[in-house]
Amino acid sequence: MSLLIRKAAPEDAGALCTLYLHHLTQTTEEKPQDMAVWREKLARFQADPHYHLLVGEADGAVVSSVTLVIVENLTHDLRPYALIENVVTHRAHRGRHYATALMRRACEIAAENGCYKVMLLTGSKRESTLRFYERCGFDRHAKTAFLRRL
Hints:
There is one protein chain. By secondary structure, this protein is an alpha+beta fold. The chain has a single domain (4-135), classed as Gcn5-related N-acetyltransferase (GNAT) (Aminopeptidase), CATH 3.40.630. The protein is built from 4 helices and 5 strands. The chain is globular, with a radius of gyration of 15 Å.
């Protein structure tokens, strides 16, 4: 099955809501979602050249996603850096390398935009998840991450 990788559009709101609420490693308690708000946010993301919410579509259905945000910077010869978040694949479609393809594309976009590095954080402690990110070229020992929830 081939995977179409593209930027998410407002009409993907329902599919992304389902993907995020039911298939992330850890999800918050489900509550009713306002799809108009989701569509409005997706329209803003789609228009922002620094925000890349990528989706993987197989047989017409959104089955995987990755978010890449490019951050302007004053160091490293004024080169930006990128952050990856919300790497998720629908449970029924895991093991088909869809997330790997999306991660590859996200890193290509970062390189095309002159980024000097790509960083990601994961809340997962599962060794299989950590090895996945290492296979994607990330070094879990390169930096120390801290998180403060607001």
